[in-house]
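--- STAGE predict ---
source: upstream dedup step, 1 unique chain passed
mode: sequence only
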Amino acid sequence: MTRFSDPAAVELLQGMLKIPSPSFEESELAAHVVDAMRGAGLTARIDAAGNAVGEIRRGPGPTVMLLGHLDTVPGDIPVRVDGDRLYGRGAVDAKGPLATMICAAAGSTGFRGRIVVVGAVEEETTMSRGAVEIRRTHEPPDALVIGEPSGCDTVVLGYKGKLDLRYHVRCEATHPSNVVPKASELAARAWTELLDLLGPGASHARFDSPGPTLTSIEGGLTSATAEFSIRIPPGFDAEGLVTALSARLDPDTLQVVNTVRACRVGRNDPVVRALSVAIRAQGGSPRAKVKTGTSDMNTLAERWTVPMATYGPGDSGLDHSDREHIELSEYLFGIGVLTRALAELDEHLPGEHR
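--- STAGE serialize ---
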């Protein structure tokens, strides 16, 4: 194994940022990441979905999976260093966390079990095809860390789920002054009906409340389509909402595009504890939070009931922004945290997970 020095860790991330990888165009970056993992001593390959998958196996012991994503939203940000800041598309979401995982895996020379590092494709899309492929082709690990920007002293316990809906309506051609509803009006009314069903407490600001978004609306007098995305908390009755909304609309025109369940673990989860201990060991004060978006943690938690949490350096407030950058000191701190957390998991995972 080759432990990354600080300059080598920065060089790894810079190299990843210089390769554009919007969703569906991750192949060049995947090949680069596989080469980097092989250079660090991991066995690495590209799987059927295009994921970059690396592995270290050192005999009996737990299997820990570290999964980040390769893809970014579109948009070019010139890669440059300005003081302690490294700019580039994906610096925080989520090439920074993925590079952290590669460096931590390479630096965990005393780990007695197996570490699997995954750079997943298409996380920024509706279907999360990369994580679905990992879920389908891999046995559940003994512990799972998802790489997303949480801040180097913060552990993410969970995410809201998501319900994506599409409403399409057609009407007979008529004069604009006719009193009958037009297709565009019916599409707008569908959004109003959705808000009424969700109630006045619906908000993206709270984890325990649904948060609706009118993703798009387009059309005219005879044909219109509206798309809605509702971020849903644990226990939310998504099926009941669809039934109720269909009853207020033409049920044949409302389509469920995708549903992802919310997920949340407790503060005593072994991965949460390991990361918290590691943050303290690095001189930080660990915090825990939940997020109102979704991640590959949702996708994997739908089938895998294993200890898990999300961790990664970077300010999530910079996700998708034109100012996206990561503090290099935070990135290096995160590598230290995750390296220590792997040692904690190796030592303290309960017997049934070994």
